[in-house]
Amino acid sequence: MKLSRLLLPALAALALSGQALAADTFKIGYLRVMDDAQAIAAYEGGFYKKHGLDVELVEFKSGTDLIKAIVGGQLDTGVLGFTNAASWSSRGADLKVVGGAQHGFHALVVREDAGIDKVEDLKGRTLASQKEGSTADTVLKGVVLKDAGLKAEDLSIMGVSPQVAVQSLVGKRVDAAFLFEPQARIAQLIAPVKQIYEVGEVWPFPCMVVITSGDTLKKRKDDVWKSLDAQRDAIDLLQNKPEEGAKLIASYFIAEPTLKTLHQGEVAREDVIRDAIKSQTFSPVLTEPELARMQEIADIMQAQGSLKTSDGKPFDVSKIVDLDWQQTRKL
Hints:
The protein has 331 residues and is α/β, with parallel strands linked by helices.
């Protein structure tokens, strides 16, 4: 009994210490797509630790769920589509876009036996894309289909995860899919499908950005900046040494060491992901043209009815963008 009494204060102190340590953990949300490779590479490559940050990486199935966690205070930052920040901010959420991540690369992949050779051929067909209101959905309807003279009602659009989109394409449940990397590349390796369009080549835009809450930025600004420094280092690795980057992140996208392909036999997963990395453009900063494109996307969202302001005026993107980090770092 005496020993127990002596141990109680020490155990209590240890518990409090553990609570404090948990509270100091910096939680970053991500999606399992190539667009979020910087967050994954920074974690697996030890870049967060290098910058003095104890990070917990939390996976989400959709940007909608991820942004809810940021708004609710369960996450400190997240790498996700800009449209999520715009939509929630228009309804009063205090959110800030504090850095860049990846430029918009979304491919239209179609079954070779579907007789689809151009975007216009999608009329009357079934297409798998992301959830309604997502960045991919906004760009698909407001740019890709519009430029082809199509409306969303002209085809059947399924809002699913990239992984389910690939499965639906391979299983012939859909005629086409609007895909991120590496899912677009994986689909073309494992099934008789072809790519007919890449929005990044036609209408480049900042797809993924780093988002935090105004409260987190105020209370943990130094940690937010450390996370951005770490992700900048990861982007440097991805851009300049894709082979090394692929070794860090390949297992997140392909569970087995090799991928069984339709025509090339077994291909090492690192090779698949290396090529996917090379096809992307990552950038930690947001340039003036990119900010202008973000405003265009917000305008598209308002036209589609997925973004509404209380006064009915155009949503001003500049109100949710905080570029202090990149300006201070002179990037």
